[in-house]
Amino acid sequence: MLCCVCKEKEATVHLTQIVGDKMQKVDLCKLCAEKKGVNDPTGFSLADLLLGLGASQEMEQASGGADLKCPHCGFTQADFKKTGRLGCGACYEVFGEGLESLLKSMHKGTRHVGKTPAARQKSRVARQKLEALQQQLSKAIETEDFERAAELRDELKRLQGRSGQTTNA
């Protein structure tokens, strides 16, 4: 089983937290466990472990303090700190400011773009480049910039020859 933090090394430290009737498990390699200071399981919250030590305090400061409470489900900052999760969809708006900085530190951005296989991504990029060139060609023809249009046409043919696509230009 791989470490939940670095996702590279074999997990040797296995933590389980039970809150109410819900159980959460975290598996860490020795190095990540040491970095997170996991030598006393009572000395940290699961949210801090998953999101980085001090994450719940950062979120608390950014979103306006510990008194903030979701009007829909009643979820509080303390609940987030204990569980590492939010209570409902409305929590994302209530705690939004604090979550943004956490998400930026955890991921590449705050917008989910999903995963794409490498071959499909390469194909998508090539298709987008062809479409952009076709638009530029149309504009060059409209503005009667025939020299530029010829260059674009040649570039389109070269790229289409590589990808095996055809065009109506």
Kindly list the characteristics that best describe this protein.
169 residues; mainly alpha
- Rg from C-alpha positions? 25 Å
Content of β-strand: 5-15%
Query: Which structural class should the secondary elements be placed in?
Result: mainly alpha
Find the count of extended strands (DSSP E, 2+ residues). 2
Percent in helix: 40-55%
Largest sheet: 2 strands, antiparallel
Straight-line distance between termini: 53 Å
Please list the strands of the largest sheet in the order they lie side by side: 1-2
Output mean pLDDT.
Answer: 76
Give an overview in words.
With 169 residues, this protein is mostly helical. The protein is built from 8 helices and 2 strands; from the N terminus they run E-E-H-H-H-H-H-H-H-H. Strand 1 and strand 2 form a beta hairpin. Helix 3 (55-63) runs antiparallel to helix 4 (77-83), helix 3 (55-63) packs antiparallel against helix 6 (96-106) and helix 7 (118-142) packs antiparallel against helix 8. The mean pLDDT is 76.
Summed up:
The protein is mainly α. Helices cover 51% and strands 8% of the residues.
